[in-house]
Amino acid sequence: MSKYWSAVVRGLTPYVPGEQPKIADLIKLNTNENPYPPSPAATAAIAAAVDGALRLYPDPNADTLKAAIAAHHGLKPAQVFVGNGSDEVLAFVFQGLLQHEQPILFPDITYSFYPVYCGLYGVQYKTVPLDEGFRIRVADYAQPNGGVILPNPNAPTGCLLSLEEIETLLQANTASVVVIDEAYIDFGGASAAALVDRYPNLLVVQTFSKSRSLAGMRVGFALGNAELIDGLERIKNSFNSYPLDRLAQAGATAAMEDRAYFEQTRQAVIDSRERLNDELAALGFEVLPSAANFVFARHPKRDAAQLAASLRERKIIVRHFKTARIEQFLRITIGTDEQCGALVKALKEILGA
Ligand code: PMP
């Protein structure tokens, strides 16, 4: 605390990201990164962009990247917004599209950055409880609100809503913006991008951090009606004209265009998830059905915090949240089969199985 801080800074409760350890040879299954490297076409494009042109500002509108994203999703470039990671896109969404008279709605168990943005921008919110099976019940969102935001699949549960359920949500909330945060959609769900042309109140947010293995580059995007996108552009152009640097624009465009590599790596993660699911179940874990690149699991006889600590002693880090209702769960990122194998071996030792 400093006497120089503004009242805004004094009132903030910042988000705490998962640990990025400085120690080598840890098996890192705590922040939902992709275990595979980015597309070789992406790293080549980034390398090729390292030249004298770096003296020039990048394209403020990232037109080439927007065109590649639009083509991938069958939309127009005017329906695409890009930002410095989907976290930045979400920040603009909270400020530009979710700040209204009525409180916004999001699940009680969800991405913990949402209440942080509400704190930063003074957005009132109300949380809607997940059901007993830790699922989102869309019928519970048919109530007056200033907007709705939820991840699909949800984080940290991994549970997926169908496109029919998303449509029900959109139809019940035509007076407000419904934001579907699809950070993990490529690992098992159908994207609501297919609904953008039919619902002017829909905004879909995606990222290059997970299914395109570019968390270190920070590129995220939103898809929606051109007027919603224009609202985000107005915020962006009042904040930072060049959120995506030349290397990020080059790398993300190449990653989006390398469809074969994307399909291959996301399928490898999905296959590993299904194997890990079975192995955890065989060890007595209850594993929630996941459509993401992580699983959310609890052991009926073992304390989750102790399990996480014992794994750490064996150089494996997973995520544990000290949050009501989920304090006995571990969120485990899907690694390579080798990493998943090391996790299962360590758990067998810890459980004495
Ligand atoms: N949404 C959800 C649900 C997430 O879990 C994350 C990753 N922490 C993000 C958005 C942000 O991802 P990024 O800023 O890397 O695009």
Plain-language structure description:
The radius of gyration is 20 Å and the shape is globular. The chain has helices at 7-11, 40-48, 63-73, 85-97, 113-121, 163-172, 226-236, 246-257, 259-282, 304-313, 337-351, and strands at 27-29, 80-83, 104-107, 125-128, 148-151, 178-181, 202-207, 220-224, 286-287, 294-298, 316-318, 329-333. Helix 6 (163-172) links the parallel strand 5 (148-151) and strand 6 (178-181). Helix 2 runs antiparallel to helix 8 and helix 4 crosses helix 5 (113-121). The termini are far apart. The chain has two domains: 7-37 and 260-352, Aspartate Aminotransferase, domain 1 (Alpha-Beta Complex); 40-258, Aspartate Aminotransferase, domain 2. The chain contains eleven helices and twelve strands. The site of 4'-deoxy-4'-aminopyridoxal-5'-phosphate has 12 residues, from helix 4.
Layout of SSEs?
Elements: H1 7-11, E1 27-29, H2 40-48, H3 63-73, E2 80-83, H4 85-97, E3 104-107, H5 113-121, E4 125-128, E5 148-151, H6 163-172, E6 178-181, E7 202-207, E8 220-224, H7 226-236, H8 246-257, H9 259-282, E9 286-287, E10 294-298, H10 304-313, E11 316-318, E12 329-333, H11 337-351
Helix pairs in contact: 2-8, 3-8, 4-5, 4-7, 9-11
Bound molecules: 4'-deoxy-4'-aminopyridoxal-5'-phosphate.
Brief overview, please?
This protein is of the alpha/beta class. The chain has two domains: 7-37 and 260-352, Aspartate Aminotransferase, domain 1; 40-258, Type I PLP-dependent aspartate aminotransferase-like (Major domain) (Aspartate Aminotransferase, domain 2), CATH 3.40.640.10.
